[in-house]
Amino acid sequence: MKRTALYPGTFDPITFGHMDVIRRAADLFDRVIVTIAVNPDKHTLFTLSERRKQIARAVQDIPRVEVAECGGLLVDFALKHNAVAIIRGVRAVSDFDYEFQMALTNRKLAETITTVFLMPHERYAYLNSSIVREVARLGGRVDCFVPDFVASALKKKFSGKKS
Amino acid sequence: MKRTALYPGTFDPITFGHMDVIRRAADLFDRVIVTIAVNPDKHTLFTLSERRKQIARAVQDIPRVEVAECGGLLVDFALKHNAVAIIRGVRAVSDFDYEFQMALTNRKLAETITTVFLMPHERYAYLNSSIVREVARLGGRVDCFVPDFVASALKKKFSGKKS
Amino acid sequence: MKRTALYPGTFDPITFGHMDVIRRAADLFDRVIVTIAVNPDKHTLFTLSERRKQIARAVQDIPRVEVAECGGLLVDFALKHNAVAIIRGVRAVSDFDYEFQMALTNRKLAETITTVFLMPHERYAYLNSSIVREVARLGGRVDCFVPDFVASALKKKFSGKKS
Amino acid sequence: MKRTALYPGTFDPITFGHMDVIRRAADLFDRVIVTIAVNPDKHTLFTLSERRKQIARAVQDIPRVEVAECGGLLVDFALKHNAVAIIRGVRAVSDFDYEFQMALTNRKLAETITTVFLMPHERYAYLNSSIVREVARLGGRVDCFVPDFVASALKKKFSGKKS
Amino acid sequence: MKRTALYPGTFDPITFGHMDVIRRAADLFDRVIVTIAVNPDKHTLFTLSERRKQIARAVQDIPRVEVAECGGLLVDFALKHNAVAIIRGVRAVSDFDYEFQMALTNRKLAETITTVFLMPHERYAYLNSSIVREVARLGGRVDCFVPDFVASALKKKFSGKKS
Amino acid sequence: MKRTALYPGTFDPITFGHMDVIRRAADLFDRVIVTIAVNPDKHTLFTLSERRKQIARAVQDIPRVEVAECGGLLVDFALKHNAVAIIRGVRAVSDFDYEFQMALTNRKLAETITTVFLMPHERYAYLNSSIVREVARLGGRVDCFVPDFVASALKKKFSGKKS
Questions:
Q1: Is D4 helix (H, G, I), strand (E, B) or coil?
Q2: How far from each other are the two terminal CA atoms of chain B, in whole angstroms?
Q3: At residue D150, does pLDDT exceed 80?
Q4: Neighbour tally for B59: CB within 10 Å
Q5: Between A95, A126, A139, which is nearest E72 by CB?
């Protein structure tokens, strides 16, 4: 029995915390699809295409991992790809409330898909993409949070924006 | 002694979770006023008039329940209607922090009004209006979250919006 | 319709936090039964009889309040007394998890009884009986936490125990 | 690649919440070992042998599930059985803090083993063995919390103990 | 050894809760710099200049306190001013998760600077600037939350805005 | 102005988490008294004398740190030593609730003493003495949690106890 898991997110941008979760998920499942949730109403710093390329590059050495995007309901996407699990990284209590909410909603929509919570390394506890963007916006170093090529991309995005 | 309680919220739209709380509140008080908090600066999916009608229809079989709207300070509205309690549904920890904050603020503003926390059925734990809107926006079924006529209204709102 | 609510607890001893919750409950219901949960396996500082007298004295000026004890299942006691509600004071998040657990269990056992959470005055936030006992044991003043006659009783209990 | 997961606990007694987690784990892994943590210093209501039999009976229809006991360090047991994952059910925030603590400690002790958090059905949210024991001790019905044969065993344990 | 601490925030507007934290910080450190975090992308009710004046006036009687603004990375500002600590007031659990996140990020960026959490008086528990703005917007009294001159400024901001 | 801070605890045994907090506290204050809370009713693994020696050895290279013990009320001890602060390490949400409770109680007992919360390095997040004792009891390695000489002492305590 081959088992597929989705790892959904916005990945704006992908961080070492995400990569740690992906690595763990790839140990547990036969196929992990990093799934970019596309929401046309939500502004992102990086375009969908940029994020797709960043993720692909960040996970290129992790076996059994693919990248995809999903513009509709996540559970429909999961059913279409025969996924048995949706992976979520949890770092903190406030995360968890929201995650419970999503997990319960998804379970209501598709009983057969189980939400699996993994804990990123404590080194990346509390790390998230919006903090990374904020530090980069203010000119701080982000190379302990994201891969080099993402750090460069962040620097480029914000250069010329500061007075 | 007749006792009145307010149940304030945005109700955009009303869900089975709200209805469960209203039913419980109607067991405890002599009069429950479902109070739509009106905030002109906040965008809602349904208009005030739509929400008022949806609530009225959703609670028509629950005795002792009325619908009203409040554009000012909730505690002033409560004092005007001789309410002794403000009802709040709590589902999760992050809810609770915010709710404590509001309750303490309201108590500072009007000592005589007690905030009463009720817990919706665990079947509706973590259910909220914004999740319902999101699922509906993505074309998912919401009839296990809201009454039929609200599900239809959501479908109508989002039809034509998806590519 | 007369409505009865139970306010269960160990009350070892009763504190200003408990009294604040009782006062609020007495505003909301027609009859409030302060219910001492009796558990022969659990050691308490004050005997059942001492606690009963302390509570009776502490609430003597609050109308509509009675004191009782319950050695069996709380929901059976509630059904026997036609109670519609079980009152719980909540102060903190960790309280709340436990309280949710009890509330859901009680609801499973008796659907008609609603658990009602009230928030004691922030002045008594985080106050509880075991902290009071600990401070008294170490010779600290507890008259800002409990009524005078309870403070004296605590002092008496611990005198002669310290080296 | 065959993947084994442990599901450790005291199971005093096994509840519908545990069984729900086991069922989900069995969908995700090739082999699930329900692992009774044996602690000679900790008093339990049911003996190790009783709990082993109760679990075996409760999971007999779930494929890929075994029962074992572990008196030493859980991660050593996991390494010995080539387990890739330790399953934990999480229901509430206070659970989660403790669970994080254990997960981080276990990770420090054995990097290759990932802790996987699953959420039991909301129907069993907040259900735990100690609540079940308490309800049974007070003569309440527990057949909505545990299998029939466990309910009978609980009744038997507590009969004759009540005055 | 003279020790400097920063107390960063938006202060839109400064509340009694902030002032309580500043007073405590001034007892612990030789110099406390109330640091207005300037974010051109974030809309505030009061201008930077207004907030600076309000803070200066609110803290004029507390010794060892200065006001400054910071448009870049807070840790760079801290290093420039030889600060050993960043002060944060914490009131609630959800606060704390966010605060942990910021503190860990800042520590990654500058190991020598310690984040120090202080708890405002329980009288100001859960009080925050956005609640104050909301109450003021709806015409409620805010003089138990902020100094008189801030209450007047709030009243002025919102007069003419209500229908 | 010389400022003294207490860092109270049971330290059964002292861990790297405690040492990290002590190091940070020693950067912020002129004198840090590691204060062993002595409670004759509470069983500990290590005797008071053992813990005192372990702490003294663990902090010998950190300047401005002393060790003391306190058998009475902590705030009395603080007032006697002119302490301005009580240091507490916080790692997790459930910690925090308890810590808030103690801090508020202490503030009620002595207004002038401020509780200061510090966050140990994320490397030691969720680490605590009871987990360390448990791992040692089961024969696991604890040298990544405590200094070598404490690890040896733990090993010695538990040798001969396991079958």
A1: strand
A2: 57
A3: yes
A4: 22
A5: A139
Q: What is the bridge-based pairing of β-strands F114-118 and E114-118?
A: antiparallel
Best of F42, F77, F108 to mutate (most C CBs within 10 Å, chain C): F108
> Best interface-test mutation with A: which of D4, D100, D105 has the largest number of A CBs within 10 A?
D100
Residues whose CB is less than 8 angstroms from the CB of residue C25 and which lie 6 or more positions away in sequence, other chains included? C5, C7, C32, C87, C116, C118
Report domain extents, chain D.
Answer: 4-126
ipTM: 0.89
Which residues in chain F have their CB less than 8 angstroms from residue D75's CB?
Answer: 140
The chains found to touch D (3+ Cβ pairs under 8 angstroms) are: A, B, C, F
**Concatenated DSSP letters of chain E:** ---EEEEEE--TT--HHHHHHHHHHHHH-SEEEEEEEP-TTS--SS-HHHHHHHHHHHTTTSTTEEEEEE-S-HHHHHHHTTEEEEEEE--SHHHHHHHHHHHHHHHHH-TTPEEEEE---GGGTT--HHHHHHHHHTT---TTTS-HHHHHHHHHHHTTT--
> Which neighbouring-strand residues pair with D87?
D116
Burial A10-27 (b: 16+ CB within 10 A, else e): bbbbbbbbbbbbbbbbbb
Question: Which of residues C84 and F121 earns the better pLDDT score?
Answer: C84
Indicate the fold that domain C4-126 takes in CATH: Rossmann fold (3.40.50)
Cis omega before residue F40 (within 30°)? no
* pLDDT above 80 (res C33): yes
The minimal CB distance from F94 to the residues D72, D75, D94 is found for D94
| Residue in chain E lying closest to B39 (CA) | E138
Q: Distance between CA C69 and CA C46 in Å, rounded?
A: 14
- Taking CB atoms and an 8 Å cutoff, what residues of chain B touch C119? 100, 103-104, 115, 117
Q: What is the mean pLDDT of chain D?
A: 90
If you write DSSP's letter for every residue of C73-91 in order, what string do you get? -HHHHHHHTTEEEEEEE--
Q: Name the pTM for this structure.
A: 0.89
Instruction: List the structure tokens of A129.
Output: 């993409």
From the list B103, A74, A94, A144, the residue with the least C-alpha distance to C117 is B103
Alpha-carbon distance of F146 to F18, in angstroms, equals: 9
Grouped pLDDT means (10 residues each) for chain A, 163 residues: 93 96 96 94 93 98 97 93 93 66 81 89 81 91 95 92 47
Give the residue-averaged pLDDT of E48-57: 98
Q: How far is CA F93 from CA C71, E89, E108, E121, F17, in A?
A: 34, 15, 21, 19, 16
Among candidates E3, E97, E114 on the partner chain, residue whose Cβ is nearest the Cβ of F24: E114
CA-nearest residue of chain D to C103?
D126
Residues whose CB falls within 8 Å of the CB of residue C24, separated by 6 or more in sequence, listed in order: B114, C118
Main-chain phi, psi angles of C80, to 5 degrees: -60, -35
Question: Is residue D94 within 8 Å of C98, Cβ to Cβ?
Answer: yes
Set of chain E residues whose Cβ sits within 8 Å of the Cβ of F26: none
Residue E128 — very low, low, confident or very high, per pLDDT cuts 50/70/90? confident
Nearest to F139 among D72, D93, D94 (CB): D72
Residues of F in contact with A122 (CB under 8 A): 122-123, 125-126
Q: In 10 A of CB C76, how many CB atoms? A: 15
Return the bridge partners of F86, or none: F6, F115
Q: What is chain E's length?
A: 163
A93 contact residues in F (CB cutoff 8 A): 93
Q: Return the pLDDT at E104.
A: 78
∠ CA B112-C10-E125, rounded to 5°: 40
For strands D83-89 and D114-118, give the pairing: parallel
Q: Which phi and psi (to 5°) does residue D125 adopt?
A: -55, 135
SS3 content of chain D, % helix, strand, coil (to 5): 45, 20, 35
Q: Which of E119, E121, E124, E126 to mutate to test the interface with F (most CBs of F within 10 A)?
A: E119
Residue F116: strand pairing partners? E118, F87
